[in-house]
Amino acid sequence: MGNNELKQTMLSKAQIAKSASRKLVSMSSEQKNNILLSMVDALQQNIKEILFYNEIDIQAAKDAGIGSAFIDRITLNEKRFYNMIKSIKDVIFLQDPIGTIAEEIIPSVNIDIKKIRVSLGVIAMIYEARPNVTVDAAVLCLKAGNAVILKGGYEAINSNKILAKTICVAGIKAGMPLGAIQFIDTMDRNVICELLHLDDFIDLVIPRGSEELIKFIKNHSTIPVLFHGKGLCHTYIDKDADVNMAINIALNAKCQSPSVCNAMETLLIHKDLAEKVLPSLCKLYNDAGVEIIGCEISKKIVNSIKSATEKDWRTEYLDLKISIKIVDSLEEAIEHINKYGSMHSDAIVTNDKKNANKFIAEVDSSAVFVNASTRLHDGNVFGLGCEIGISTQKLHARGAMGIKELTTTKYVVKGNGTIRI
Amino acid sequence: MGNNELKQTMLSKAQIAKSASRKLVSMSSEQKNNILLSMVDALQQNIKEILFYNEIDIQAAKDAGIGSAFIDRITLNEKRFYNMIKSIKDVIFLQDPIGTIAEEIIPSVNIDIKKIRVSLGVIAMIYEARPNVTVDAAVLCLKAGNAVILKGGYEAINSNKILAKTICVAGIKAGMPLGAIQFIDTMDRNVICELLHLDDFIDLVIPRGSEELIKFIKNHSTIPVLFHGKGLCHTYIDKDADVNMAINIALNAKCQSPSVCNAMETLLIHKDLAEKVLPSLCKLYNDAGVEIIGCEISKKIVNSIKSATEKDWRTEYLDLKISIKIVDSLEEAIEHINKYGSMHSDAIVTNDKKNANKFIAEVDSSAVFVNASTRLHDGNVFGLGCEIGISTQKLHARGAMGIKELTTTKYVVKGNGTIRI
Where are the domains of chain A? Predict the structure, then answer.
């Protein structure tokens, strides 16, 4: 496709999406849930075809010599398929946020004001790898009354196309406005650039994927961006921590699911407690297959620890690997976290309330934990229902995001011929 | 200054601001209010000097042959000076949002979670003309616990410099962290470009000024932008409107303060009511000195109306000028507003509840008014206290914004050795 043709195609998709979003605002929760139910049926009926196309993507990745961790991410087996179905059902059961009161307003003049929750309009979702995002994102956006433009990665293109086609056809049959869900199958990267400038029609861009993808989108978008950035999470074991609790939390935060964003990457230990914690903890880490690197002081306490470099403090391993630093004070721990962290999830283990409060106030992260594992940072654990992601930015949404974060608000003002005096 | 030197200077300012913001988070409301009080005193003591420097800006503008409307905007007379002082006092009386509960969270596991309101960090405020913005923005940011980097326009550079110097010196004497308020007096436009890429240190950019300035910033910033865009506001007089009420509202919305963003620019009238409304209303508009242009049908009803072009429906006059269109239906009115409006403030005058509800649901604006004037869209009228502006975007803040919109949230999670299972 030429650049001009591409521009026109994207513009026209965005315009159709905007027009569909105008229709979605008047749909009841029941109508939206019926559409979602029809998608569940259609996906279940098409399971064989969907897994067949997924197999094509897997084979292509294997032929290209791509690593097994990545192939695992694009794989859609039966178990994952039914998890995807379950997550649509969860969305059906979610309370519809549209029309609820967002905030109580007490005006200074005699008018009736309500700040109500309304849909955002059109959302562009740009993602990589996992094909279930196609379905997850589409149904969450739809439930919140938004039209969505999906742009998945090339790695799962065949899976994404069949999934999108299945839910679109079923949705439209069940009354979904035409263009409410659109999938872009052009692999040209210019497509993303074109999309990112259509701020007259697209209200929000959500990138989900590598740091590089997110950076590209932040740098090119004139549309507001809501991103789920990296999770370089810390646990700090304070001077007055309960040693057993500290070891338990440090073990859980690193090992329970090392490849996810809320897993711990760096452990900070107060110097007065290092000798009590480190030897037993390192033994447990060794048993769990964790590679341990650390500062010079930590190496003196446990000889098998390898040297950490400056780069390690900045690295999100997403793996069974940890960097450990012995610090002189709470202040040093806080400074380290604010300097190297990604403002995602950071924990302190302490019995000192004053220190806990200082940590809470001064650590600039979306979630701070006291005597608890960073792994708890999750939309479901926090009771938000389905999670879109964990925002590591500060505007609009911060930390675990639910369906509410796919909405905005509107002031509705009723008067009786009221004018400004 | 060379480009590299410029980059270094901006980076260093942003780093100092970030460091100041870390100190601000631990300050009590009383400490912050004391700093603001010291600024009130210092400004009052320096009034002569401030008005003297303002006179220099005014003279320079006159010498450059700049129009009187613009000169009025940069003028800081005694009355305006004391309004500025009053607005600092208003901020002192505002409830401190920091540390308040932003939202009730009911977790699905046995942990204690609070979503509390915290400061954003560092805000860059980029504005034009009015020198009082220097003070207004600085004190609101400070009260919300944020450091602020101010970049005012060249037109009021001398006024801005003396205002910023006065409040900074007084603030620091009263315990404000060094660098919590910084003013950039370099006039090089590259300064803005450098600032807009410092997303590691600056959390939010607020542009305030021309459409062109806002567009420039949206296009260049990798930092989230919160903007107060243009106000192309409509009033729609429905078939079942009370004629007197409609005329009253249409007169108020246009004439009470025509140069502000919530003033009406386009009036839409249902065809069945046009002959009843238009002649009397146009007479009142003529008496008020309003220039009237309109569609072909409106011209047949009132001969003195001049022809509107397509461009008029897209123009924010900010003046005693109005464009009028006769429409066939509520649907046509809604479509016109969504097509040409700026999603700011739009009103319907009607006694038909069903039509009112359709208008509320389908008009995609930050505030919709039923039987009330768009001029009511204002932070003070809405009871928010001091207003930062009216957001015409949908993320983070929409419509009238108060101090709360200069904050974000943080999850504070307390466990008892709680881990993820």
Answer: 3-228+399-414, 233-376
Distance of CA B134 to the CA centre of its chain: 14
* Whole-number Å distance between alpha carbons of A71 and A85: 21
Q: Express each pLDDT in B382-418 by its tens digit.
A: 988 777 889 998 999 999 999 999 999 999 999 999 9
Predicted confidence (pLDDT) per residue in B250-282, tens digit? 999 999 999 889 999 999 999 999 999 999 999
Decide if B405 touches A, using CB distance below 8 A. Answer: no
| CATH class entry, domain A3-228+399-414 | alpha beta
Q: CB-based contacts of B53: which residues, under 8 Å, 6+ apart?
A: B158, B159, B161, B162
Tens-digit pLDDT profile for residues A337-371? 999 999 999 999 999 999 999 999 999 999 999 99
| ipTM of the shown complex | 0.92
Residue B1 pLDDT > 70, yes or no? no
CATH architecture of A233-376: 3-Layer(aba) Sandwich (3.40)
Nearest partner of A153 among A177, A128, A121, judged by Cα = A128
Q: Which of residues 84-113 of A touch B (CB under 8 A)?
A: 105-109, 111, 113
Q: Does B331 touch chain A (CB under 8 A)?
A: no
Residue that has been written with the tokens 């069974």 in this structure: A320
Instruction: Give the helix/strand (H/E) hosting A242.
Output: none
Burial class (CB in 10 A: 0-12, 13-18, 19+), A303: exposed
Q: For chain A, say whether B339 makes contact (Cβ under 8 Å).
A: no
Q: How far is CA A383 from CA A153, A403, A408, in A?
A: 30, 12, 20
